Amino acid sequence: MTPADMQNIIFGLVTGSILAIATVGFSMIRQTEGFINIAHGQLLTLGAFLGYFFVATLEMNVFLAGLASMLLVGLFGVLLSIVVFRPVAKSGPLAQLFTSIGLAYLLFGLIRVVFGANVTFFPTGFGGRLDLGPVNVTVGEILIIVVAATVVGLLALFLTQTRLGTWIRATASNPELARLRGIPVNRVSYAVWFVASALAGLAGVMVGLIGNVHSELGWTQILIILAAAVLGGLGSIYGVLAAGLLLGLAMDLSALIIPTSYRTVVAFGVLILGLLLRPQGLFAAKGRREA
Amino acid sequence: MKPGLRQMVILAVIALVAAACGDAGGEADTTVGGDTTTSAGSEATTTAGDGATSTAGDGEEGPIKFGMLIGVTGDYAPYYDVSKAGADVAIAEINDAGGVLGRQVELVVVDNKSTVEGAVQGFSQIVDVEGVHVLGGPESDGAIANLQAIKDLQLPTICPACGTSELDEAGGDYIWRITGSDSDGGLIAAQFARDAGYTRVAMLVQNTEGASAPADVFKQVFTEIIGGEVVADVRFDPGQSSYQAQVDQAFADEPEVVYVGSGFEAGGIILTEWQRRGYGGGFLFSPDMVVPEIAALTEQGVEIGDGVARAAIAAYDTGSPAYESYAPRYEAITGEQPTPGLYDANQYDQYIILALAITAAGTTDGPAVAAEITELLNPPGTTVYSYADGVAAIEAGEDIDYHGASSSLDVNEFGNLSSPNFGEQNIVDGQWSQVATVELDPSLRP
Amino acid sequence: MTGVILFLVGVVTLAGIYAILAMILNLEAGWAGMWDLGLAGLVAVGGYVFIITTQTTHEDVVFAPGWPMWAGVVAGSLAGGIAALIIGIPSLRVRGEYFLITTLAFAEVIRQLSINLGTITRGTVGFNQFSRPFESLVSGSAYRWFLLAMVWVIVLLVYLLMRRLGHSPYGRLLRGFRDNDPVARSLGKHTNRHRIQTFVLAGLMYGAVAPLYVWFIRTVTPSLFTSEVTFVTWTALVIGGIASLRGPVLGAAILLVVTEAAALVQGSGEMAVVLASVRFIVLGLVLILVMRFRPEGLAKERDAFARASRRVEA
Questions:
Q1: B63 and B149 share one domain
Q2: What is the ipTM, given to two decimal places?
Q3: Residue B361, domain member (yes or no)
Q4: Measured between alpha carbons, how far is residue A291 from residues A269, B279, C34, C132, C314 in Å?
Q5: Minimal C-alpha gap between B258 and chain A (Å)
Q6: What mean pLDDT comes out for the span B188-206?
Q7: Which residues of C, range 93-122, sit inside 8 Å of A by Cβ?
Q8: Is B58 contained in some domain?
Q9: Do B19 and B42 fall within a single domain?
Q10: Domain range holding B431?
């Protein structure tokens, strides 16, 4: 393995960590609420702009800003679920999907009215560069990976060790059965929307930190999120995490063998290949029911 | 068949409602001429009995309409305010001098949404609904999308900021380009690299036409004519959150300098990543990078100031009387100096040119106006630096040669500038500023 | 007024093109239950194959056979069908969201390829100088009326074809499969084969009508075939009434005329940036409200097909 390979693995890890955080939330909604939420991408945009506002205008510490964005976007997600999605829950997944597309346009327009259409950069440094033998990494990148790993760890603890978490998992694997067994469906739904949206907010801040903050961010990210979610099999959270990481690595490692202008093609190529080999998703534990 | 008929009826109703709304909107916007414009325009078209002539065969009353088809929203939105300011200076100057052919001039702005589909629909709106007599403002893709229609309609059009190589040999009859082309941009960047003595260059280029066309010229000239080596040619898609792998690839073989051909959106990310990893070296930037957003990065610790990053962009002719008269008027509107790279002076020049052409032709008839443009931009003739001077000279029966605020504006047979001005730009104190003027070395033309 | 009408000729032409796309989408998504989010990709394949095989003015491409227009249309149509076959075989084995996302991914791949394969597609520049059918016979300004007529004649033809298909045993079978009808299954029909057939048919049709879009825009570049085409078509279909007969045409006409004519109302104000954002807000709100209060859209499936009446569901 050459140094360039290893360096690209680091880049891929950073890309993949952020992608995994963004996709987990998307996937949770898909599992418990039963539809594809295209507006998830716009929640990333919102998180990025809020984070930027906290850091640049209110001069908050970047960690505090990230936390505050998570909280706000999470609450906003709960609000959206009550106002926008609950009324169409009975109309089936297609109606929900198109409600989410409508919501994505609505949020996109609102974000542009409020924050404008300009491109901005976080005024946050990324710390020094650390040389680790043949490769190097910056403090900021380590922090992103550490934060992502911590959040995933906490999420796993929450889902397995708390009652609410157990309910969520039960609802995810079989909503009908969960309802029959008396699991409080509303509370589960609020919790899922909060966690999923908060994760979107966090991912948005991270995307903004390593890249830039602009209103189109949500549209470009949702494509990759969709790819990662399908690759992960839409089902298990760990599958989605693994898929996010894999896709991140694939995109950055592909730079070594094929021209980088094909980076997006690679992401979707991996997806199509994955579907060919394992139609139910690479990491799905068992065959899933047809939608 | 019945349902089909019903749809047609519904459609017709919608069309009528929309048309009514449209008329209301039109009147509200017509600040100068009032509603006489609308009726005068439509009568003329009805008499002519042919839609296409709505641009040429207008009534003799009401204002002459100068169109501005431009990206008010979308990717080009950041350029809109300054472009409009430049155009406003010109319109005010023309009207202050008594208008054109004794009629006031009205600027009609239509948004092309910075997209191809938007440009096509916007073109129809500005030509059919607004009935403009001449057109300015379009960016490369908008101009290309409507190129055929401009020629079909014989609509005199000036492109103030199109770089596209598609116009290198397509203009001169109804469309002119009054800025340096992308091809020249690539050429001048190669000249920079030669003059600085670079022999090993890497390239980081965005996969869009405006970026890849000059990059290809740069590569061709630098390798084939100058004899340098391109150690890495990395192309990427815009719109990603990170370009780490691409940046790493560009710097892998330790080039002396990296040519960055990119919009500032991706370019900004690339530069922060470059700083983060401390790759060192220097940059040659394409003109699209010469925007305040990039310069502002120096205040966030990205060390590209003081000549680390250099760019050659079309420069304004700051010594010209036209510029000296234009600059304070522009500053009065915007509070800023005219900025090369934002093309505000080109926006100004285009409407002065169009107004002079109509004056010289003595009519708003498309072919007659177009026939004057190349002539009044080139010698021989009395050199004039303002609209009023030009009108005076024309009325005295002289040929004129208009020198503008952006350059002397001499054009070749294809309506392209024959010797565009370039200036070297560096970032000084968080702002782009011109540190030298550069003359394009003709021996480098491929 | 004359000017406004000329502008509206363009708008109604574009609406007609989207009406055709929405009717084809209705066949695959409304009746056969295949949620295709990649139709822009199939249109792109048709459009590019047509222009590459027929154009003669751009000489800097490696392949420019300069075929006659009809041959180009046939080639574009076939290419659309073949592309549909290639995507359909892997992704139609699993239904619903997998198909949806694979098609979305495919459309993006096609767009990227059209950018990167510059030697045959002219990259991001694309094609901008080419002739259109009967251009020598119809003079410049009348051509817009000609194009309008041509588009709406095709709208009518496609509509009649769809009405025929929808009432045929084939159409009933598709809707049966979509609704997971045990009767349709018990007949021993191969669900998957019918789905692939339908998707390929849709691909052939997308490919065949793509030249209309090309003639209207008069330029072919990758930026024309973004997912926005897909989303606008879907929105038109959903507003009009998915799985109905008239819905696609109605939805496309209303959506396009309203959003494009909005450009007239806004005029040229300094508020354009905000107004452009408001356009998205209105589009989003309309979609949300239609889904909430009239999820079947303006025209209903059960009115179109008296027998089967089903909720909007996959």
A1: yes
A2: 0.84
A3: yes
A4: 23, 50, 11, 44, 8
A5: 16
A6: 92
A7: 93-98, 100-102, 104-106, 108-109, 112-113, 115-116
A8: yes
A9: no
A10: 183-316+420-444
